[in-house]
Write a structure and sequence with these properties.
elongated; mainly alpha; about 0% strand; 2 helices
Length: about 70
C-alpha cells in the first residue's frame, strides 16, 4: 500500500517545501541591503586607435595573402 502512496505524495511534498521556503524567505530573512550609490566608472578609451583605423581600411580577402604589413 505504501508503494502507491509515496510516488503520488512526492510532488505535493516538494511543492509544500518550495512554498515553505518562499514564505520563510519573505517573512523571516532580513531584507537585502541595496547599494546606496553606484561607484563612478571611468570612461572607456580605446587602447590603440591606430589599430582600429587600420581595420577600417580596404577589405582583404580571407583566402589570399595580404600585401599589407
Amino acid at each position: 500500500m505504501y508503494a502507491l502512496i509515496v510516488p503520488v505524495a512526492v510532488p505535493f511534498v516538494l511543492l509544500g517545501t518550495v512554498m515553505g521556503l518562499s514564505w520563510w524567505e519573505d517573512h523571516v530573512l532580513p531584507p537585502a541591503k541595496e547599494p546606496t550609490e553606484a561607484p563612478a566608472e571611468a570612461p572607456l578609451t580605446p587602447a590603440a586607435p591606430a589599430a582600429i583605423a587600420q581595420l577600417l581600411g580596404t577589405p582583404v580577402p580571407l583566402t589570399g595573402v595580404s600585401t599589407r604589413r
